[in-house]
Amino acid sequence: MFESIFKDGNMPATSFFIALGVALVFGVIYAFLACYKSDSSSSFFIAAALLPMTVAAVIALVNGNLGIGVAIAGAFGLVRFRSAPGSAKEISIIFIAMAAGLAFGTGYLAYGAIFLLLCGGLLFAFGKFTAKSKSLKNKEKIIKITIPESLDYSSVFDDIFSEYTLKNELINVKSTNMGSMFRLTYRATLKSLDNEK
After folding, report:
1. What is residue 82's three-state secondary structure?
2. pTM to 2 decimals?
3. pLDDT tens digits for 119-134?
4. CA angle, 117 as apex, 115 and 119 as ends, to 5°?
């Protein structure tokens, strides 16, 4: 059960399709566990479910040349984040699915299945215990403010933020208008949505 179903580098069609079928079944289970009560889109769910099977097919079709297979699978994994930045959790989900796909593609079906179930279960458990309440999540805002470069931005908004936010963090400072202005980006959690403006 823990040995590769591909013997001596040979890849019979039945073994190939068994590996793809097992990768698909456990990929769907993993996607349900990983994306449960998550903000991820339905397209991300589909990607997480199909990625183990896709990587398994790539690894199997490069016929044991693991270096080429890893390079190709890595390129697949990065495509999702080319235009839309992913959260740390989404990146983890992608790389876990790719690692399991490597196991399935080399014929180690039991290892891939155990790995996916273990990681999916951990993501599910972490999601239950660390989930923020919906009301608190709705109060989180990204605030962008443009100020003149002569203004000291380190403490200029402290009084307003202490009055209207539970917590705030300056996450980016960027110069604009050919260096004459600063664009400040804050992540803030509001005390009440009634006073958002």
Report:
1. coil
2. 0.62
3. 999 988 887 776 554 4
4. 65
